[in-house]
């Protein structure tokens, strides 16, 4: 606790406010469910897997353990491997401001990529090897994998955020012609 | 049907629960997928027929902001559905669904809730729901607060430590017949009393088990309820009342809000076949029994109650499910279900159910 002087009365007497610091920290243990645990194991080996819904055939990457459209569980026997190449379906270029904890200093990309064989997108991936003003939906990209010795599970979470950046550095253009809008129109996020 | 202001023709017609376990490998939404599917199937409905959906959960448990949005995927939210969420036990989601059904334009509703306490440390997490000036900085955990309540009860001569142990022994014994219970078995009262204190005058067994799990329930009204269920569990009254947040501002040996909620739900002290009380700490069952004025001989917590399974955010809704199940299977004609939120029975909900 400490005293802080802020403001004054009309008579010029300083007002005293008691300031109490109360720092909160909570401990969470984010145990990955079997579906995501398997995804991580394969990712570290350089393979990307998902689950194919037995009802509608949509492929979810990473696997969720269920299909939200059909509301049916999915498990190991629904596993399929998808490509590490795909389509840039949406992006934003972020100019970092220096808020507390910000580690980026230069503009960077936050993009969604639909991998070939998947019906969902990997979200929040970096795109490199192309000037920011040439980024566009439909751009064909491929994964830039970290060397095996540098891969980790850091940041991979079952809680709806976190991505694959501890294993795949970024995606870069393949040089193939752009994909037609039909292939990404329903997958911009 | 009813001439009064509140409809009394809304009934429980389906439900499902997962077993409560100390550490589930599944996420909340993965727990909910089969649970919701089973509840809707029991009611004989297709999920697209559901008129309104309401869920209860707490993002702080897993530390995942907006986890409740992902949970919604388990209800099949495409094509878009009408839904709402409460950051409360699922019993309050039930209350909102019941209110929504009062409009009369829909005849079915889905209620679900989930909780995963295994991702966090409850004794570290829960002090943060206390007021940030006086109590939270002290780090007063739920067991310590419950110890103060137990002490007040002993000092007032309203219960003995043996009474606490008897609640525990009966709860665990009853839990043996409940496939979803987590902590069950024969317990000798004298042996329980020989255990050391954890937070005097409470022993470890006076505390609820920490568990992960999910539950879902389907409501239907009037003719639709009769069509979906041979013997619906009619909600004759439901109400909830809350007391001050600061435990020092109330008499901890009684529950004014539970008594008021019961009266407003139409419970007048008349005969009940059973009462399912959400009392996470053993002394709280005694506070509730006395405050609600349950008649002698009322069967209390035949499911084992919260001392046998206490999935946070689910345990209150589970009380309604357990009471409704006994009515639907013909084992009871009139039951009272109670749920609580907050610390030391701060907020209480009472639901009176009947068969016909």
Instruction: Give the overall pLDDT of chain A as a whole number.
Output: 90
Give the name of the CATH architecture of the largest domain in chain B: 3-Layer(aba) Sandwich
- Helix-strand category of chain A: mainly beta
Question: Strand arrangement, largest sheet of chain A?
Answer: 10-9-8-11-12
Principal-axes shape call of chain A: globular
The chain pair forming the largest interface, with residue counts per chain, is: A-B, 24 and 36 residues
Largest sheet of chain B: 10 strands, mixed
The radius of gyration computed from the alpha-carbon positions of chain A, rounded to a whole number of angstroms, is 23 Å
End-to-end C-alpha gap of chain A: 46 Å
The coarse overall form of chain B would be globular
Helix content of chain A: under 10%
Specify the number of helices of chain B: 13
What order do the helices and strands of chain B follow?
EHEHHEHEHHHHEEEHEHEHEHHEE
Number of strands of chain A: 12
CATH H-level superfamily title of the largest domain in chain B: Thiolase/Chalcone synthase
Could you name the CATH class of the largest domain in chain B? Alpha Beta
Uncertain parts of chain B: 1-5
């Amino acid at each position: 606790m400490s005293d802080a002087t802020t403001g004054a009365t009309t008579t010029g007497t300083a007002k005293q406010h008691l300031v109490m610091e109360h720092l909160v920290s909570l401990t969470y243990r984010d145990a990955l469910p079997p579906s995501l645990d398997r995804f991580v194991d394969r990712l570290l080996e350089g393979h990307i897997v998902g689950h194919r819904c037995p009802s509608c055939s949509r492929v979810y990457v990473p696997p969720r353990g269920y299909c939200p459209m059909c509301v049916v569980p999915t498990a190991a026997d629904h596993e399929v491997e998808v490509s590490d190449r795909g389509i840039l379906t949406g992006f934003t270029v972020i100019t970092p401001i220096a808020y507390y904890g910000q580690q980026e200093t230069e503009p960077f990309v936050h993009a969604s990529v639909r991998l070939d064989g998947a019906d969902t997108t990997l979200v929040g991936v970096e795109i490199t090897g192309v000037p920011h003003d040439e980024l566009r939906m439909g751009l064909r990209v491929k994964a830039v994998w970290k060397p095996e010795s540098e891969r980790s599970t850091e940041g991979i979470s079952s809680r709806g955020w976190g991505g694959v950046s501890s294993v795949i550095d970024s995606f870069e253009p393949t040089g193939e012609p752009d994909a037609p809008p039909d292939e990404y129109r329903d997958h911009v996020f | 049907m009813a001439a009064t202001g509140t409809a009394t023709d809304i009934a429980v017609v389906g439900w499902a629960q997962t077993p409560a376990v100390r550490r589930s490998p599944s996420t909340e939404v993965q727990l909910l997928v089969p649970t919701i599917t089973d509840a809707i199937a029991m009611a004989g409905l297709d999920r697209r027929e559901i008129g309104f959906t309401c869920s209860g959960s707490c993002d702080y448990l897993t530390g995942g902001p907006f986890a409740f949005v992902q949970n919604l995927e388990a209800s099949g939210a495409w094509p878009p559905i009408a839904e709402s969420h409460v950051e409360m036990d699922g019993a309050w989601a039930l209350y909102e669904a019941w209110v929504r059904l009062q409009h009369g334009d829909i005849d079915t509703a889905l209620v679900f809730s989930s909780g995963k306490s295994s991702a966090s440390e409850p004794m570290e997490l829960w002090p943060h729901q206390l007021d940030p000036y006086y109590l939270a900085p002290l780090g007063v955990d739920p067991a310590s607060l419950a110890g103060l309540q137990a002490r007040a009860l002993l000092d007032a001569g309203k219960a003995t430590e043996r009474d606490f142990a008897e609640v525990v022994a009966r709860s665990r014994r009853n839990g043996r017949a409940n496939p979803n219970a987590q902590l069950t078995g024969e317990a000798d009262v004298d042996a329980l009393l020989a255990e050391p204190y954890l937070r005097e005058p409470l022993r470890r067994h006076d505390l609820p088990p920490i568990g992960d799990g999910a539950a879902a329930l389907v409501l239907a009204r009037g003719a639709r309820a009769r069509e979906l269920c041979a013997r619906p569990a009619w909600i004759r009254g439901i109400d909830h009342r809350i007391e001050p947040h600061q435990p020092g501002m109330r008499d901890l040996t009684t529950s004014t809000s539970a008594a008021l909620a019961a009266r407003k739900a139409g419970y007048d002290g008349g005969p009940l076949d059973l009462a399912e009380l959400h009392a996470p700490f053993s002394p709280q069952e005694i506070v509730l029994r006395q405050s609600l004025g349950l008649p002698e001989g009322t069967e209390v917590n035949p499911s084992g109650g919260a001392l046998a399974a206490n999935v946070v955010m689910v345990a209150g809704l589970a009380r309604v499910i357990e009471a409704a199940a006994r009515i639907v299977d013909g084992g009871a004609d009139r039951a009272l279900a109670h749920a609580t939120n907050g610390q030391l029975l701060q907020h209480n909900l009472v639901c009176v159910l009947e068969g016909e």
